[in-house]
């Protein structure tokens, strides 16, 4: 098991995360992808964590920076976290045991505890109520996962071509999750695995909301049959209460239409049905 950490201009948060990861009893190899940071990130890692493999990119590639980290992974499994998240002791050991025993599982999403008071992330509550049933002794079956709190088969990541660089950030997991499902892999919520999350204050929430909406629409048109893509796109836009944000998200999505058409690959019927079942419960 190797851990890949994605970071951008958050050296203070990264220090805390690397201290936690370096203290894990499993002692996994750690790869830090420095996404074009202009702060002290590179110096911090080189000086204080010499055992960590540091990859410094010339610019910020967003979520696709993880692809560079995975290119250097030599283990069959890879765990992901961000600079404001970290894995708790024994979680990675349990993940290895689960993946060894269940070759059908491609991705395990951890239980995420947020803040100093360790509140359950609302996304985990949604995962617990998945309409897709329960995978044996592990947890509920899913159609997606959280980018900074999952363990994946390295082969599944590579087969799905990793994260699409055009997304940058915001809901980037949806496309790779669809492709993993389409290849027959299972995505499972495994509450035995625990990730801590202390959300960074360095966030541009308005930009992130725009990108999430744009990327969700792009994902529809990249993979869904035309009719389903159209209906799902309308649902996504309808969920945005801010009229200006809704217009901007639509405009952003239309700007990439030619690229979307050129990259379009429609999912099989079974994968589309799984997605429909989850969306109907929203």
Which features does this protein show?
single chain, 282 residues, alpha/beta, Spore Coat Polysaccharide Biosynthesis Protein SpsA, Chain A, 2 domains, eleven-stranded mixed β-sheet, 12 helices, globular
Provide the residue-averaged pLDDT.
96
- Helix/strand/pairing class, anyone? alpha/beta
Query: What's the architecture of the largest domain, going by CATH?
Result: Alpha-Beta Complex
What is the CA–CA distance across the termini? 34 Å
Return residue spans where pLDDT drops below 50 for at least 5 consecutive residues: none
| Strand and helix order | EHEHEHEEHEEHEEEHHEHHHHH
What is Rg?
A: 18 Å
DSSP strand (E) fraction?
15-25%
Under CATH at level 1, the class of the largest domain stands as Alpha Beta
Globally, the shape reads globular
β-strand number: 11
The named CATH superfamily of the largest domain: Spore Coat Polysaccharide Biosynthesis Protein SpsA, Chain A
Number of domains: 2
Question: Percent range for helical residues?
Answer: 40-55%
The major sheet is characterized as:
11 strands, mixed
CATH fold-level name of the largest domain: Spore Coat Polysaccharide Biosynthesis Protein SpsA, Chain A
Number of helices: 12
């Amino acid at each position: 098991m190797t851990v890949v950490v994605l970071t951008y201009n958050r050296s203070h948060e990264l220090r805390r995360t690397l201290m936690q990861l370096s203290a894990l009893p499993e002692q996994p190899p750690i790869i830090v992808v420095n996404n074009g940071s202009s702060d002290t990130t590179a110096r911090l890692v080189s000086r204080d964590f010499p055992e960590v493999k540091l990859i410094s990119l010339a610019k910020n590639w967003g979520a696709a920076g993880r692809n560079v980290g995975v290119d250097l992974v030599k283990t069959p499994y890879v765990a992901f976290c961000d600079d404001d998240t970290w894995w708790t002791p024994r979680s990675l050991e349990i993940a290895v045991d689960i993946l060894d025993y269940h070759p059908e599982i491609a991705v395990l999403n951890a239980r995420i505890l947020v803040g100093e008071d360790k509140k359950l992330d609302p996304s985990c509550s949604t995962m617990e109520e998945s309409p897709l049933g329960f995978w044996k002794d592990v947890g509920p079956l899913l159609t997606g996962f959280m980018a900074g709190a999952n363990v994946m088969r390295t082969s599944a990541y590579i087969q799905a071509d990793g994260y699409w660089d055009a997304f940058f950030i915001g809901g980037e997991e949806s496309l790779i999750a669809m492709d993993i499902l389409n290849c027959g892999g299972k995505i499972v919520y495994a509450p035995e695995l625990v990730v801590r999350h202390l959300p960074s204050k360095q966030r541009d929430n308005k930009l992130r909301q725009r990108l999430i909406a744009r990327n969700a629409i792009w994902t529809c048109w990249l993979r869904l049959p035309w009719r389903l893509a159209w209906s799902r796109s309308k649902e996504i836009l309808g969920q945005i209460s801010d009229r200006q944000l809704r217009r901007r998200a639509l405009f952003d999505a239309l700007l990439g239409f030619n690229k979307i058409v050129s990259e379009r690959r429609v999912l099989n019927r079974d994968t589309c049905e799984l997605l429909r079942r989850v969306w109907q419960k929203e």
